[in-house]
Amino acid sequence: xxxxxxxxxAERFEFLQTLVTEFQDTDSGEAKEQVLANLANFAYDPKNxxxxxxxxxxxxxxxxxxxxxENFVEFGMGxxxxxxxxxxxxxxxxxxxxxxxxxxxxxxxxxETVLSAITTLMNLTTPQSRSDVTAPAILQCMLRFSLPExxxxxxxLAAVFLQDCCSQEQVARAQQQMQGQQTAVGIPLPKxx
Length: 193
Prior knowledge:
This protein has helices at 9-25, 29-42, 49-54, 57-64, 70-83, 87-95, 98-104, 111-123, 130-133, 136-145, 152-165, 168-178. With 193 residues, the protein is mainly alpha-helical. Helix 10 packs antiparallel against helix 11 (152-165). The radius of gyration is 18 Å and the shape is elongated.
């Protein structure tokens, strides 16, 4: 069994490969959830990035975003959130229509999924992707999430997104577009967890 304090690259790669193979081979939804949760956690460690890229785990996480199983979506989104901090993984996500897939997770009923989606969008922001990440519908969603009735963590993270990823002009324009609308894009607020 691989230990987290192990520094052997070959052992690390083999262990991650075993997890990916287990995910692909098992028919058990519960086992798949456990493997996804483990892979998402391993995606947090920079030592694993090269191996996870080689094993195409980014694509696996992206595929999970369209699943009906909310646990698959949550763990896939969490894994992408962790991977999106690394420039090469970020580029893979961007090339794979990741902004669109991640944006759809903003409507998840699960707060953790939404928080991971917002953080991932922030991590995906580059000079080339900024206009997609700060599209009017996303800004209106962030404005809605930043309202007092939103759960506190969601409200805070949405405010950081608006401050760090958007110009004041973009925010003002989105606020004007929302005038008279009761909700932004009809996206319900996630449940406070």
